[in-house]
Write a structure and sequence with these properties.
This protein is of the alpha/beta class. The protein is built from 11 helices and 7 strands.
């Protein structure tokens, strides 16, 4: 099946911590039942929002792991590194990632920065792509403080320590402006180089080209496809049609549903999913699997402990699965006591040896 990164109902909103989202994508990368990842970045009715660039990079790294999941488990990169190497000759089928958005118009470009890591990017025919760049603002309260007779006493070491400037200045001074521009250029470079790397457009997009794109303004789907920033521009989200075309009924003689004409240019041969599940439902499935696995490990540990006690004491101990939590606490208490006595004996022995002539 396919993991759907947004609830299909635009009225449903769901907030999730980045760490949880990254862990779920990693689980999906290892799950043999999951063959594709589909990210819906929303449009006029719903938006895909992030907390900042660091969150976007973590999600991109997780999607990269999913893209590389055809590698062996020992080679699967679950760290936050940008290793792009793949293993040749591996027989496991690569998993696919698809991104769809009616438009990519967030001011910070973070939504497209994440979408660029997907293998296939789709944007609605009348959509717009805004790559206007990043911006940084700073508030200055010196005028407000002067108006009410408030004087701020601050300690500042070095001209580039800019935090106190918000209370002592009415605008940017030269060092503050220089450091802010340097930070902004670094963040902008991270976004641009990430998009270049993900889309494979290093040769076409240099610094001069990016400046021209930012100055141009909103890109139409035709502009974006000519530049290699998107792959497909359907009139609507094609996910339901793609799932329906792969979903066969119980009667094996019945053919899958025919795709509309505007999907004829879409690479449907590599689309293997016949069922879609949204991220929230899949997250619950993963949690349930982990609970069952942990419960089985707890039971196995208790059984091994009980067998050891029976061998040592020569008595029979009854253990029921519904007493798992109690037995775990009991075993933990015994281990703590054992460690305490061992440490106490070691302390007494060392004190005795020190007192020897």
């Amino acid at each position: 099946f396919l993991i759907f990164l947004r609830p299909r109902n635009a009225q449903i909103s769901h907030q999730m911590e980045v760490r949880e989202l990254v862990d779920i994508i990693h689980e999906a990368a290892k799950d043999p039942k999951v063959v594709a990842l589909y990210g819906n970045f929303g449009g006029s009715e719903s938006k895909f929002t992030l907390g900042g660039l660091a969150h976007a990079e973590e999600i991109r790294n997780a999607i990269r792991v999913f893209n590389q999941s055809h590698q062996s488990p020992s080679e699967l990169n679950t760290s936050n590194t940008a290793d792009q190497n793949t293993t040749k000759g591996n027989s496991r089928m690569p998993k696919k990632t698809y991104a769809y958005g009616e438009s990519f118009t967030t001011p910070e470009n973070y939504s497209f920065f994440v979408a660029a890591e997907f293998q296939t990017i789709q944007m609605q025919t009348r959509g717009l792509l805004n790559l206007s760049g990043l911006c940084i603002g700073n508030s200055f309260f010196r005028g407000f403080l002067d108006k009410y007779g408030i004087k701020a006493h601050v300690f500042k070491h070095g001209q580039y320590k800019n935090f106190p400037n918000s209370f002592t200045d009415k605008g940017f001074n030269n060092p503050h402006l220089k450091s802010t521009k340097s930070l902004l250029a670094s963040l902008e470079g991270t976004v641009c180089s990430g998009i270049n790397s993900s889309r494979g457009i290093h040769e076409m997009f240099d610094d001069r080209t990016w400046r021209a794109v930012r100055d141009y303004g909103s890109l139409t789907t035709t502009n974006a496809k000519e530049l290699g920033l998107i792959d497909f521009h359907p009139p609507q989200n094609p996910l339901d049609y793609l799932i329906a075309s792969k979903d066969k009924s119980d009667n094996s003689e019945q053919e899958p549903k025919k795709l509309p004409e505007w999907l004829e240019n879409f690479d449907t041969r590599n689309f293997k999913a016949n069922h879609a599940i949204d991220l929230v439902k899949y997250s619950k499935q993963v949690q349930n699997r982990k609970k069952k696995k942990l419960s089985m490990l707890d039971i196995q540990f208790i059984q091994a402990f009980v067998e050891t006690v029976e061998k040592v004491t020569g008595t029979s101990v009854s253990c029921h699965t519904y007493n798992v939590q109690f037995m775990l606490h009991f075993i933990s208490a015994l281990l703590c006591l054992l460690i305490f006595f061992m440490c106490n004996d070691a302390f007494n022995l060392s004190r005795y040896l020190k007192n020897q002539p």
